[in-house]
UniProtKB/TrEMBL annotation:
This is Actin-crosslinking protein. Transmembrane segments: none annotated. GO terms for cellular component: catalytic step 2 spliceosome; nucleolus. One of its GO terms (molecular function) is actin filament binding. It is found in: Nucleus, Nucleolus. Residues 1-56 are annotated as: Disordered. It comes from Cylindrobasidium torrendii FP15055 ss-10. The keyword Nucleus applies. Residues 19-40 have a biased composition (Basic and acidic residues). InterPro entries: Actin-crosslinking, FRG1.
Length: 283
């Protein structure tokens, strides 16, 4: 049975293709497999820089896993139990359980939009529905989503663990976690000193954003490997002249250069002046 999948406005439908070999029967390259992969497929991030774009945050709570949602009507965060899936297009079919890591959002309220803070390792989490409110945490650990603008309290530093789970650290260096309140309801708190079971989340992003992050990382590495191109002419001008990098020329030399330029002998005159400067330097 296929699980229903949330479709975003303007998203084009694309069928996934499984291709293990190329036209000659040889195994296909990893790059080709990436190109064949559905860009909207929900995957787990492997590094903090991959967290971007639509984001689905779930917690393996016992006995029922939950997702971190935003209620646009009340402008409040809702930690809600994950419903069982029904086959797409068949409302009368019995609901089925799906393994937690195969879960995908079925309602736009379950989706947050992750944006990265320029020049920083921190991110912002904005609701994907309503007017777009930012996930925020104050100094007392109270977590809300009612702010239109972003500031330090809306910044989170994601920590990706080897098992793939993610923790979110706020500006006060405390961690986001699931907390049980009166009546057994679950909510979010942001005052945990350490990362334990309550502070670990499964986070899913769309494949195209993960690929985008990896492409950017490769470009940075390629740029560093290539090194910085040295401007030899500029370096010579800076380190082989005096006067803070300016070529100091005498009045007589200036007159000679102007005369040579008029006579079409500028190149020859420049060579003569350089030879003279070199001779004066080592005398």
């Amino acid at each position: 049975m296929s699980a229903s999948r949330l479709k975003f406005k303007g998203e084009k439908h694309k069928k996934k293709r499984k291709r293990d070999t190329d036209d000659d029967g040889r195994p296909s390259s990893s790059k080709r497999r990436e190109e064949d992969r559905d860009p909207t497929e929900w995957v787990l991030p492997e590094a903090p820089n991959e967290l971007r774009g639509p984001t689905f945050i779930i917690h393996p709570s016992d006995p029922t896993p939950v997702s971190v949602n935003f209620n646009s009507t009340t402008t409040r965060i809702a930690v809600s139990a994950l419903d069982k899936y029904r086959p797409e297009g068949d409302d009368e079919a019995p609901a089925v359980d799906v393994p937690l890591l195969e879960r995908t959002p079925t309602d736009v309220g379950q989706v947050w939009v992750t944006t990265r803070v320029a020049g920083s390792s921190t991110i912002n989490l904005r609701s994907g529905t309503g007017e777009g409110k930012f996930l925020s945490c104050d100094a007392h650990g109270i977590v809300t989503a009612d702010r239109d603008a972003r500031g330090p309290q809306e910044e989170w530093t994601p920590v990706v663990f080897p098992d793939g789970m993610v923790a979110f650290m706020n500006v006060y260096e405390k961690y986001l976690g699931i907390d049980e309140v009166a009546g057994g309801a679950l909510t979010l708190r942001g005052d945990s000193e350490e990362v334990g079971f309550k502070e670990r989340f499964w986070v899913k992003i769309q494949f195209k954003y993960k690929k985008e992050a990896n492409d950017e990382e490769r470009q940075k590495k390629d740029g560093l490997a290539a090194g910085t191109k040295i401007d030899e002419a500029g370096a010579n001008k800076t380190f082989q002249t005096w006067g803070a990098g300016r070529s100091v020329v005498s009045q007589a030399d200036k007159k000679e250069l102007k005369r040579a330029q008029k006579e079409g002998r500028l190149g020859e005159a420049m060579l003569e002046r350089r030879a003279k400067l070199k001779s004066d330097r080592f005398c």
